[in-house]
């Protein structure tokens, strides 16, 4: 079965929902401990971050493994990240703030740790909304630019996590490190690309390969690693 | 009481060292029954609390025991709020020496050996020295106190403590005129307190009170909760409880008490001076830099409730801070 095929994509999405199902089970069976609100907040926040890391790992992995079939999972993980981030934010808004918008405004204004976390979530909203194939087609080139917002969002999420810790920065530090590597790989690559672009006589319309590109159907197959010759079974491509 | 010369605390023998020495003497001299007899207040009745047992946790080195006799809390020391369920108070803990997650302390508490236990008493007192816990407590009847506990992280509990007023203990030490502060220190032993293997804070944990705060009748040295001796995760065998201050002031597993002229260095203040002050009085008006202190979640509730000044003990303690700017002295 091909990595990017529909059954695999569905399986990955279903797998990404296991933590949610697990959490709901714990909620129903009183398994969230003495302070369920804190537990829900921590779990949803952690899973949002993990999904974001997975989403950002897809492109480097796809290139390293020369496995174009991985590409569609980037969107799946991105949407899962947004789902968990939204549950995280809603928990805070409902149970910490009692939906008091004044309290939300005060937190965003006065507490940098909330400011960056909230900003990250807001940055992810348009990305989630434009994750459909139709949006990718409609926005064309601009879609890439828009979806590069995932990088600042990821950095803000890492800062949010570090600032939420009281004194033990081990876990947030590990996530920040992984994110730094994932973003660093892209920086190095971009830098390398630019140099090689200058060195050679401009190749015919080199497709500007970025991560922000092509979460959906056709676009994800574009780019140097995914030209039809690299794909043994072009018919297997999902349009 | 065995006495030692009047030395600064850092020159006194490391508590872990003399604890091991005592352990050796004890185990060679007496069996478990004789050991229990050394602390008459702690009748060895065994734990009758199956709900607390964790199937996966190894036997604690020092299992909790029922405490008797205990004077019930008089009205002024009895919060009206419903008690926090015992299993919550014993499973949701901040005790970084046993790990930084809330469930780490209950999981790691079995490593802590609390019998025998000694406390070094130093500084501006008549006879500095090291005293066995049972000798320190013997003159003082055990009392119950039902107090609200407000954590700096904006959650709270209501806990029935068993202990003795710290003021009574201090009076027996005959403090000198230079004694203006009391400094406390937690056991330093990464084998028993594995969280100390990582330098999350500058171990050992240290806390302190101004003399008038220490002498206040609300302030107790606790040895038990819910009618039993303290479990490791709650700071066995001896901890401070200061109900009008954020929970981190109520230092756990105390091995050192020192009376001194200078304001003591305290662990959280040293770690993040902009976030945790020396006074740390519960104050809904003064936000932690990263979150509001105006509201708190009582463990067991879904929604938050307003936080009261001095955690609701203002009538009894506000006078201690008359004329002080509590925004500056947070």
Structure description:
The complex is a heterodimer of chains A (239) and B (330). With 239 residues, chain A is mainly α. Chain A has one domain (6-236). Chain A is 69% helix and 0% strand. Chain A contains ten helices and no strands. Chain A has helices spanning 6-16, 18-28, 36-65, 72-96, 101-110, 112-129, 133-139, 141-147, 150-164, 170-199. Chain B is α+β, with helices and mostly antiparallel strands and 330 residues long. Chain B has a single domain (2-46, 60-321), classed as Oxidoreductase, molybdopterin-binding domain (Sulfite Oxidase, Chain A, domain 2). Chain B is 17% helix and 21% strand. In chain B, the strands form two sheets. In chain B, strands 2, 5, 6, 9, 10, 11, 13 and 14 form an eight-stranded mixed beta sheet that branches. Chain B has a six-stranded mixed beta sheet with strand order 1-4-3-12-7-8. In chain B, a hairpin with a 2-residue loop joins strand 9 and strand 10 (228-229). The longest helix of chain B is centred in the N-terminal third of the chain and has 15 residues, at 15-29. The chains are: A mainly alpha (239), B alpha+beta (330). The A-B interface holds A 33-38, 95-96, 98, 103, 106-107, 110-113, 163-164, 166-168, 170 and B 85, 87-89, 91-92, 96, 100, 102-103, 153, 155, 198, 200-201, 268, 271-272, 287, 289-292, 297, 299-300, 302-304.
Short description:
Chain A is mainly α and 239 residues long. Chain A has helices at 6-16, 18-28, 36-65, 72-96, 101-110, 112-129, 133-139, 141-147, 150-164, 170-199.
